[in-house]
Amino acid sequence: MSPAIITLLVLAGAAVLFVSEAIPIAVTALSVEIILYLTGVIDAKTAFSGLMNETTILFAGMFVVGGALFETGVAKKIGNIIKKYAKTERSLLLSVLIIGSALSAFLSNTSTTAVMMPIVLSIVAAVGYNKAKFLIPLAFAANMGGTITLIGTPPNIVVQGALSDAGLTSFGFFEYAKIGVPLTIAGIAYIMTYGYRILDKQHIYCIEVNDKTGFISEDKEKSGIKQFIALAVLIITVIFMVLEQQVGIPLHVVAVIGALILVITGVITEKQAYRSIDWTTVFLIAGMIPLATTLVKSGAANIIADFAISILGNDPTAYALTVVLFILTTILTQFMSNTATVTLLTPIGLAIANSMNADPRAVLMTIAIAGSSSFATPVGAAPNALVYGAGNYRFMDYVKIGTPLIIIQFVICVILIPFLWPFY
Asked: From the CA atom positions of the chain, what is the Rg in Å?
């Protein structure tokens, strides 16, 4: 049996276990890499590469930085201040969605979620709201906001580079906003209405669940000095993340430096730092990274892509091309990083455009936007994985909440992309 077929079978099995949750989701993720190793598809180094991945390290570091806000009592103070202005649960949710999407247009969606999550948790803890109603919306807002600008999400940059390399006209910095803004507005409207009701019904049980993130000392008041240091480290960490390109220090290194400073200065103890890390999230993302890599290297992703392309036929309409490309990209991006998905499909998209005499810009815009529509699984995008453990979510929560949002984005893209960027 070829490595590609084995990989597809492992992916299918993992999907079934994720949905059924017959075993813990993190155990499923780790089992994936072990099975791929035992079947000879990957070597041991690749199998455990997820534990050394930048995203995994970023998560761990930011969990510690965020946990310090709770351990020192800063979170409680922030929550009490914002409580005066957040009169209702929905008004707070709307604020989170707007701020999250706006920040993500200029920051990475991962760093936006990592920075905002401890703040959101502190607010909902202070006012007594159900945290599960806010964290998935935060992650989704970060994903949507990234579609607004060139630098909002890596897929946009991948597409930009492909156009430049091919000698074609690149997209303008805010050209993505033509489709990104309508998608974000529609997404916010969905979450504030139908999505909110789904979260409300699905997460009554979460109210009684103790925080599994380690943020369990939020009622302890520490000294003013420790509170000052904890807040200063968070602010400086955010600044360095915003200025990543100028400073030259990667996001995950900044997060680790912040965590180390908090422990070295005695703001939190070593045990508190370990406790603040959501290990379910860490092992979830670490286990799925090798699968995403293997989908590309084994040729499994190409099998999926070739099958989808064969559906198009010889003379597809612009709308048929948009539909197939969007569905293909969206399916892959639920289990692969959006960057890997778009990187894989961009050359395929260019080939399709050339063979059908279609405008490559229209094809690549479809792929870029669909690549950011990773809402239906906790492993589809880093922000989704980041909030998974903190919100005590289940895999099916993402399916139930994210699938309607994908459908909404699909409809908008099918209508607007052929109009804004004509294929022919």
From this structure: 21
Closest CA to 342 of 301, 281, 379, 376: 301
Structure tokens at 50: 């997820």
**Alpha helix stretches (DSSP H) within 39-88:** 44-47, 54-72, 74-83
CB 357 within 8 A of CB 321: no
Question: How does pLDDT run across 40-51, given as a tens digit for each residue?
Answer: 998 888 888 888
- Residue 286 CA to residue 278 CA, distance in Å, equals 13
DSSP string, 377-405: STTSSHHHHHHHTTTT--HHHHHHHHHHH
Say which residues have a Cβ less than 8 Å from residue 227's Cβ, sequence separation at least 6. Answer: 72, 73, 74, 77
Residues in the chain: 424
Least confident of 43-47, 255-259, 262-266, 300-304: 300-304
91 membership: H or E segment, kind and range? helix 89-104
**Pairwise CA distance, residues 93 & 99, whole Å:** 10
Rounded Cα gap, residues 149 and 152, in angstroms:
5
Residue 236, C-beta contacts closer than 8 angstroms, at least 6 positions apart: 258
Would you state the structure tokens that stand for residue 397, as one six-digit string? 């929560």
For CA atoms 371, 56, 291, 136, the dihedral sign is negative
Contact 95, 241 (CB under 8 A): no
The pTM (predicted TM-score) of the whole model is 0.71
- Taking the CA atoms of 102, 95, 79 and 202 in sequence, report the sign of the dihedral they define: negative
